[in-house]
Every structure is written in structure tokens, then in C-alpha cells.
Fold this protein.
Amino acid sequence: MEKNAPIGVFDSGVGGLTVVREIMRQIPNERIVYFGDTARVPYGSKSKDTIIKYSRQIIRFLQGEGVKAIVIACNTASAFAIDTVQKEFSMPIIGVVKSGAKVAVDTTKNGRIGIIGTEGTINSGMYASFIKAQNPNAEVIAKACPLFVPLVEEGMLDDTITEQVAGRYLTALKNENIDTLIMGCTHYPLIKSTIQKVMGEGVNLVNPAYETSIELKRLLETEGLANVCEVDSPTLMYRFYVSDAAEKFKDFANSILPFDIKTIEQINIEKY
Amino acid sequence: MEKNAPIGVFDSGVGGLTVVREIMRQIPNERIVYFGDTARVPYGSKSKDTIIKYSRQIIRFLQGEGVKAIVIACNTASAFAIDTVQKEFSMPIIGVVKSGAKVAVDTTKNGRIGIIGTEGTINSGMYASFIKAQNPNAEVIAKACPLFVPLVEEGMLDDTITEQVAGRYLTALKNENIDTLIMGCTHYPLIKSTIQKVMGEGVNLVNPAYETSIELKRLLETEGLANVCEVDSPTLMYRFYVSDAAEKFKDFANSILPFDIKTIEQINIEKY
């Protein structure tokens, strides 16, 4: 596998761009091919079988793009599909859920860890099982927050309504005296300050996007896959694909990435 | 075509059940086959081409179930796909958008009509063009309300947060002095009282689900397709299909239909 091959990153839609942003920060000389499954978003309410099928299709597409490793940036796909696809494909595949869980275990002092995410992520119990595997004594308190994604996508990042919704969702977690909270959905870091405000400064927020990019960096070095070539311009280094209309994706991408995306290609993911 | 063949009704997910509820009320002796595309929900953010493709697949599936007429209960699909599928298929197909637009034109006194819906419905401009076709002097003021669907699906039907969100979305419409407002999304009738409260009693709310079931009744009579046979139990009269996990669908269905659904079948819609 060529060292200067790109990293494949995928998500159900735009949220995974927060992971891309972290990878760009942590390993700025790696090329990236991103796929956002905007035709089939959201994954959070879909079944495990469906998510595994979608993940297989996307990985086959990314393989065709010549990637050297894959990051599942979507929490739901990472929770439901990672064990299956790690067995089925030979290239290194990492996901946000395992990375986030590991850091939460390392961070907590009182052993009480909260997790917020979509219904799919929370119902999968995957964060909890990764945490328990590392620290059987940890207490895990999970809460699905289905309104956070649409609020972020409405651009209501710093908004009294978002704060009230956060208040509703997070009160139960506050009362459970957690000291660490995993933001188990890629959209959530964009309302981190609101979540922190509601939870209070005493609670550590874990951002799996950040942790995953650190793990990716380590993995590439260990496997001898780190890129050692010259870096190009963003236009050449980063390629973006979606499964449906690209306009809204572009607006969102340009609001969170450090440069403006010029072209986004639409592909028919059902073919893969 | 057999008179006692069922009506096919489809939607992107659970919302079309508000249309089913109205059909059950208006024409209680008609059998219904419902398909909810829960694997590919929501349609509101997807492109016209994708929505047409999905609609074709669903109509082919419903044809196989032997339906005598089809109701597109999804506003987005009704807006994007109805002209295309009416040309491609020979059976009668009606959609919520045309029915809703017609009644709004008949209802308004000052000629100022508001429309709320998902981004797909609003951006299609279809309600506006149907209204203009019937009354070129009508003023149409449209507003996308993307948070309403997730709020309804969270069960926040009578809630201060929903009221604040409604206040944000609807203020612009209020200031435009409309006297008629089309609830252009199947979920919205479930927060009708909140919408009415924000808009004030002077504004007539049009529920296309209701208007569509009246139009369907008329159509079946005109075409000689109305069922004249004995009615069965709900279990035999109504069949429900989804494209992904049925549990959440069942909970929602049982909260809005007049009887509890026992079985929901999952099918692979991609095959059609």
C-alpha cells in the first residue's frame, strides 16, 4: 500500500466533517477521501442490518478510491458495523466509538461516565460495552438526544432554544453525578459550549473526533503507512463525495472546515 | 380492477399515517396498504431525482400488492414526483400537495396564503405553482420548518419548546398578514393547536391529509372504484409495510391510529 494513498473517512452525512477537521489538524500531511451518505442520512434511527449493509457499500467505494485506511466517523455505523467490517476487509479500519470510550475510561476519576448520542448509538450499547471491557467497575449512564442533530443543522449553535433542549436532555445525567461525558455524535462538538454550560465546568467532555485522529496518527506510524511526501494544496489533498445533492453539504462543510470546498462529487452508492 | 382492492398509501416514514387516519374516517370501508420508507427517511432534504426514483420503486411494490389507486401521502414526494409517476403509471394517483393547494385557494379571503413544510417541499415551489395556476393573483408566502418533524417524533406535541420554535418560524408569516396557512407536511397536523396558537384564531389552517381523503372518496366514486363489499376487521383491512425496523413505527402508529397495529412487515424496497 502506497504511503501517500489517502485516508478514507465516512459518515451518514455532514457530521463526520468534524472528524475530518481534527485529522487535518493532527496529521496535516495526509490526503483524505470523504464520503457523506446524504441520500440515506440519518443512520441513527435505522437498524443494525441496514447500517452494516450501508457500511460495506461505502467501504467498497472507498477501496476503489485507493485508500490505505478507513475511519468510520459516524457513531452509529461505528457502533453497529465495525466488528463486522474489520473481519471482512483487510485494510485497517478504526471508528470513533472505541477511541472515545478508551479516553473516557482514562479520564474519569469517580468512575461515572455519561454518554449522549442518537437513538441508534445509545440503543446499541456499544459505548457502554467498550467502557465495561476496559473498566468493569465503571458506571455508564446513557441518554439519546435526537433533537441535537436537527438543531445543529439549523445553525442554532448558540441559542436559547438549544440550551433549553440541552437542559431537558442532560438534567438526568447531571443528577447522576458523572464527571466525564462522551459526545457520542459527530454533530455534538459544534454545540460543545452549550453542553458544557448545562453540565457545569466540573464535567470533562470527551470529543471522539479528536481522540480518533490521535489514534489514526499512531496507527499510521505503527503500520508504516504515514505519508512522507510533500503536501499539496487542499484542492488536491482532499476529495469529497456524497450520495445526494451537494449544495447543503457544501454550505455546512464551508462553515466548519478551514478552507472552502470547491467541488463535491455525487455518486450512486447503491451500485457498490 | 376489483372494487374491493385496497388503496395504496405511501410516505417517507410515519407521517403519512395522518393521511391514513383521515381516509379511515372519511371512507371507512376501503382497504389500505401502507408503505413507510423508514430506511430512507427523511425525503425533505433529498434531491428531486432521488425522490422520483424512490417513488417509482414504491409504486411498483404497491402495484404488486394489487392496489386500485395510490395516494402519495408524503408532501415532498407529492411535490417532486407526482407529474412524472402520473405519466408513467396507468392507475389513478393523487397527492397531498394538489388537494391542499386547491382548498387553500377556495378558503382564502384576502388572497394571502402561507405554506409551511420541509425544505424539499418548500424549495420545490410546487404548492405555490398549484396555487398560482388556480388563482394568479394569490400571494404565496412559504417557510421551511425543519425542526417540526423531529419535535413531533420526540413526542413534544404540547410543549413550550415547540411553541418557541413555532414562534421563530411563523413570525415572518404572521407579519405577512396571511389568512390561510397550509400545513404542508404530514407531521404538522399533530401540532396543529400549537401552530394555531402562534398564528392566532384569524388564520385558517389547511390540513392536506383531510382534503386528500375527500378527493380520494370523490375519485373512487367517479371512477366506479368505490368498495361495495362488507368491511372486515382492521387486522384484515389494513396492511402496513416498512423498509426498516418496525418497532418505532409501531409505537408512533399506535399513538395516532384508532386501533393498535399488530403486525408490520419489513421489505427490501431497493429490489423494486
Observations:
- Chain B has two domains: 7-95+210-271, 98-208.
- Residues 98-208 of chain B form a domain with the Rossmann fold fold (CATH 3.40.50.1860).
- Residues 48-64 of chain B form the longest helix (17 residues).
